[in-house]
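User: What would this chain look like folded?
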Amino acid sequence: MGLAGLARGRRVLAAYWGATVVHVAAVVADVKVLKLASKPALMPLLWQWSRTQGAPPLLQAAILASAAGDLLLEADQEIAGMAAFAAAHACYLAVFLANPAQRSWRVLAAYAALWAALIAILAPGLGSRRVPVAAYALLLTATAVTSRWHNPRSGLGGALFLISDSLIAFRMAGRDFRGRGALVMSTYTVGQYLLASGATRQDDLTGSGHPR
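Assistant: Here's the prediction, encoded as structure tokens.
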């Protein structure tokens, strides 16, 4: 990457974090106009940054599908929003499975137990949405597992994305709490960045361990 490309990448990334701070602040202060204005800018900015990093097409598709999911959730289209994010996770899975540094079965077992516990807790309050939420959560968990197999940076991103969407599921199950919205967006934006940056920085971030 040339100096011009590097500088552009830094500018776009700074804009992404700036939009993130504005949006989270708007969520905390409950400024609806600012929330609606800032959220649609988040994933398009991350997508632009990923292009400066030479992101593969599937990674770019994951970010763009997430942008669609953001808009659908803002329009209270929860099932359609989950479908868009499911497409994003399918793309992430393809990216991370194509180049896993190590396959840790302990990571798989830990996340499988977490998924089962989460569904057991939330299922009574989900009603007719129980099946689609469980299916989406399984896909989200798969992203968390495979991103950790890829490298620690993307693995942290997958974990934060799982936390973010789990907090949304808690609201859907009638278990809302103060500050949840800010936590959702904070973990989501950081998680998405770590997923994207982990997928585009493989040289010094991949683990050196063996399958276990």
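The chain is about 80% helix and 0% strand. If you want, I can go into more detail on any region.
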